[in-house]
Amino acid sequence: MSARFQELDWRRTPLGELVLRRRWDPMFDREVHEIKLNDEFLMSSLFTVSEVELARLALAGLAGPLDVVVGGLGLGYTARTVLENPDVRSVLVVDALGEVIEWHRQGLLPGGRELAADPRCRLVHDDFFALARSDRGLDPTEPDRLFHAIVVDIDHSPRHLLHPDNADFYEPEGLRRLAARLHPGGVFALWSNEPPDDAYTAALTDRFARVDAEVVRFHNPLQDRDATATVYLAWTAG
């Protein structure tokens, strides 16, 4: 059994104080990894069902070989689930926090070294939202590159943002630019911690050929009740 509580790393970043910690939870008899930004929990390994489902729902029905972008590395569950799909040829994972990428490469997070060493996977330290609005494209080394899936888990929801500068990504022009980065029949998948937003679904419908909002249900062991997240899915015309 590990020590009851360990702070594995602490960094001061442009977004605030970033902390990676590991603790032993006696209630669930398991080790838990958590990332905090200032006083807010960004993610916990106690709650990973919706991150995994985000990747599975995004790739369901797509035929390979597939090139995928993952916006937001976090604890790595979404990226690792993408790589479990045998049809995936390449995964570009973009994260604005170089510290999080370092944690994976150093093996401070379970499965981190394996993810970083996978020959299909490239970890990029960059601002996903800045790339999405720029002429550089989502792959800084190949401005005109298109993808079969763009999978994003960064903000808490289209309205609850980590930074106000991210807002244009969810607006009509941002969605138009995003759709232009997808192959015909490609999919944009977005994680949200809030119930489906009718206004955002309508904005997606204006820019994509087909749109869905899947509610993912999972058990919250801390509160001993069911919880939900939303996965928005939007496909370009095939």
Describe this structure in words.
The chain has a single domain (47-235), classed as 3-Layer(aba) Sandwich (Rossmann fold), CATH 3.40.50.150. The strands form 2 sheets. Strands 7-6-5-8-9-11-10 form a 7-stranded mixed beta sheet. It is an alpha/beta fold. The chain is built from 7 helices and 11 strands. Helix 1 packs parallel to helix 2 (77-84) and helix 6 packs across helix 7. 24% of the residues lie in helices and 38% in strands.
Which stretches are low in confidence, meaning pLDDT under 50 for 5 or more residues running? none
The arrangement of helices and strands along the chain is: EEEEHEHEHHEHEHEHEE
Structural class: alpha/beta
What is the count of DSSP helices, taking H or I runs of 4+ residues?
7
Task: Look at the structure and give the mean pLDDT.
Answer: 93
CATH class descriptor name: Alpha Beta
The CA-CA distance between the termini, in Å, is 51 Å
CATH fold label: Rossmann fold
Topology:
Elements: E1 5-13, E2 16-25, E3 30-37, E4 40-44, H1 49-59, E5 66-71, H2 77-84, E6 88-95, H3 98-105, H4 112-117, E7 121-125, H5 128-133, E8 147-152, H6 172-179, E9 182-192, H7 198-207, E10 210-220, E11 225-235
Parallel strand pairs: 5-6, 5-8, 6-7, 8-9
Antiparallel strand pairs: 1-2, 2-3, 3-4, 9-11, 10-11
Helix pairs in contact: 1-2, 6-7
